Amino acid sequence: MSFSDLKPPGEGNWLEYADDRRKLLLYAGPITDPVGVLAGEGWEEFELLSTARALADAPGLGDAAGHTHHVPAGMVAEASAAIIDEVGGERLLALGGGRVIDSAKAIAAVLGGQVAAIPTTLSGAPMTGIHRLPAGREADSGVRPNLIIGYADAMTSAPEPQLRASAMNALAHGADSLYTPLADEASRDAGLRGAEMVAGALDQPREERDRAALALGALLCGIAVDRAGIALHHVLGQTAVMVLRTPHAETYAALLPETMEAMRHRAPDQIEALATALGTDAAGLRARIVELGGGRRLGELGADRDRLDQVVEVAMARPELTHMTPGDVAPSDLAAILEAAW
After folding, report:
1. Is the pTM of this model over 0.70?
2. pLDDT at residue 1 is higher than 80
3. Strand partners, 50
4. Where are the alpha helices (DSSP H) in the chain?
5. Which pLDDT tens digit goes with each residue over 221-279?
6. Exposure of 51 by Cβ count < 10 A (0-12 exposed, 13-18 middle, 19+ buried)?
7. Counting beta carbons within 10 angstroms of the beta carbon of residue 316, is it exposed (0 to 12), middle (13 to 18) or buried (19 or more)?
């Protein structure tokens, strides 16, 4: 089946998708009977990783869990390390955003076992095997949830500015995966279909928005980056978050118009296809992403401008930058992107 044929479920209905890496169930509505849905998929017993905020919207899930572990704030390496010694189950259910889901993946990489996810944001975490490891622990990374239960209302419930930033994080997954050496027909199909759905949903008034389409678009972009890997945008974005300590989604949203502008001459065919999916052309892509994301700037996120040189230095040392990005990448290229995004 082509991803271009995949349509979001109507209100109150489920969509089911499966491939060789995971099974996805997406419901067009609020979190409803998560315990029963999990049991129907053979997940009667599990330990739960979540936050107090997420648990408040998931009736009965905490009571059904063998143990509930509250994931602390902070970076994934530190958050997962803080609770790994409390975890003993072979099945971990993550309810929450990217930090919670990535922490479950990180812990499972060290301890073994399976991960399922109920995402509450548009993070790509539930669809990928991309994650850090708990601080001080060694293991092979690459754990991905094999069951994802998405509830569209929970995934799209953030206030509009935060939701648009999260959507740009999702869009970045689809965009960055179009031109890596690992990209193939399936990853590009998923990324472009996901980008189209994200943009179409964001163009709608919030009160009329097809929330299932927005959720599915983000999930498809996650499938794309899981297949094709990350390139310039994610390397620079991840490094900026780590060095500048700025919020993840908002940082990605600020950088995305500039990283895609920088890719126009590096991957012209793929960037033109992305622009078409977003309803514009390559020349209008930067402005279109600004429109979709709300136009936040790095300088508005509390970043220390004096540390931008450090961002460039750390990003240049990462092998994914040169191995996965078309064309040569110089420090001046990264500095120009950060300056334009400031």
Report:
1. yes
2. no
3. 70
4. 34-40, 52-55, 61-64, 76-83, 98-111, 152-155, 160-176, 185-203, 211-228, 232-244, 248-263, 268-277, 285-293, 308-316, 319-324, 331-341
5. 999 999 999 999 999 999 999 999 999 999 999 999 999 999 999 999 999 999 999 99
6. middle
7. middle
109 in Cβ contact with 131 (< 8 Å): yes
Q: Which of 112, 116, 109 is nearest to 50 (CA)?
A: 116
How far is residue 324's CA from residue 305's CA, in Å, rounded to a whole number?
27
Q: How far is CA 71 from the centre of its chain?
A: 18
Q: Tally Cβ neighbours within 10 Å of residue 49.
A: 31
* Residues 194, 17, 228, 141, CA torsion sign: positive
Rounded to an integer, what distance in angstroms lies between the CA atom of residue 315 and that of residue 81? 24
3-state SS assignment for residue 128: coil
